[in-house]
Amino acid sequence: MRLTVRRALAVIVCAVVSVVIVINVGTLSAWRDGKRTPELPWDDATLRTAALAAAAVAPRDVRPLTYLLPPPADVGNHVLSYMPNPLAADVISIENDTSRLSQLLVWPHQSDSDRIPEQMNYAPRAKPSDAHLKTIYVQTGLKYWNVAAGRHVFQEQKCRVDTCRVTDSRHDAGDPAAVLFRNHYSAHAMTAFRRTPSQVWIWYQLECPYHSQWLGKMSGVFNWTATYRHDSDIVAPYERYQPYDARVLTLPLRRNFAANKTKKVAWFVSNCGSRNNRLGYATELGQHIQVDIYGSCGPKKCARRKHGECVKMLNVDYKFYLSFENSNCKDYITEKFFDTGLRNDIVPIVMGASKEDYTRAAPYYSFIHVDDFAGPAELAAYLRKLDANDTLYNEYFQWKGTGTFVNTYFWCRMCAMLHYPTKTKWYEDINDWWRGQGTCVKGKWSDGGDGAGLDVPY
């Protein structure tokens, strides 16, 4: 008797479901026994089918964003092998439609997001010619950027809009389209040449307001900002996590991340002074749960030259890590969270930006924010609860495999925005934008930010 196509598909689906059920039962048994779950023999096709089912979408041929989302080559212990990306699908559908590409929402007043994918994929209606290059004069010198003079960086990164060049030579710059100031500026540098009305002056800064230059005399000077803040004109985050599919927030785990870990909380820190009293908080937390402080501010040592061994120790021994910034400022989320926290097999406990800011920047359910607790004692009680329950602890790792950390292509986006037809804008009071009311707090964000300590030059 010949099998019909429908009957054959039904047999295949039943077989796949049976395998998944057996695997899940085995996984739960291993978790209950407190043992490390063995690697599961799932092939790419099965993984992609499961991911698509979770997203409730039909399989389709979707390429990743040209610059933003290359498919992950190795997902290690994570279930996901490949996920379609709705952003990619939209870009593909409009990549030959310059009228739609030119209408992407790319400026802070247009969208509350960081607009990085939109800026990266913007293209003017008419492709600029090589004869009309935009020159970017880097006032602080190219050596700080590790970029060579000329067009190399734009061509090497295959920018969608590559008709720009960079230089740090005042003589070579001529009448530049943009002048880029990094961190510091001086009156001499700003009066070194005549400024034309169409010239864009850009202020770049990755330090927080407490540790950056006073901008009180810069009213009406800068046109664009390039900082880690999501409301900057060109956002320059320390890291950026991009989901493969915004509809898929969690995935089944292939291992128990709590298995064999015998220690509770770790922290690597060398700067003992801070505006938010993070050391005091950590010390009080240590009165209620084990907190091992490594470096200049604690009794334990792990030399920086042995960074790999220190990270391995974190992954093997500890369940939690204090990803504490030195200041509680808007959107101020550094490598302490992304590199030491999310990239490792520990749960980061965060202090710095508000919970809303972390939620915007981080994968779903991937961190614990100190502001959710009345104080260190209440936080310690919650950590002890997670320590005693592997199922609850592992929920903080179900985001793994749902996305990847991406290159945000700062130079590509700057070049694209210089070709964007927009009216000239400037910051009437950039100092107020950067360090005004509510920008930073010394305590909890829920207590309100009054800009205390930011009303005088640093």
TrEMBL record:
Fucosyltransferase C-terminal domain: which residues? 259-433
| Subcellular location as annotated | Golgi apparatus, Golgi stack membrane
Keywords (A to Z) from UniProt: Glycoprotein, Glycosyltransferase, Golgi apparatus, Membrane, Signal-anchor, Transferase, Transmembrane, Transmembrane helix
All copies of the Fucosyltransferase N-terminal domain together span: 144-238
EC number per UniProt: 2.4.1.-
Superkingdom, according to UniProt? Eukaryota
* Its membrane topology: Single-pass type II membrane protein
Which residue ranges run through the membrane?
9-31
The record ties this protein, via SUPFAM superfamilies, to: UDP-Glycosyltransferase/glycogen phosphorylase (SSF53756)
Pathway(s) it belongs to: Protein modification; protein glycosylation
Write down the PANTHER family for this protein, in alphabetical order: ALPHA-(1,3)-FUCOSYLTRANSFERASE C-RELATED
Family listed = Belongs to the glycosyltransferase 10 family.
Q: What is this protein called?
A: Fucosyltransferase
Query: Highest lineage ranks of the organism?
Result: Eukaryota, Metazoa, Ecdysozoa, Scalidophora, Priapulida
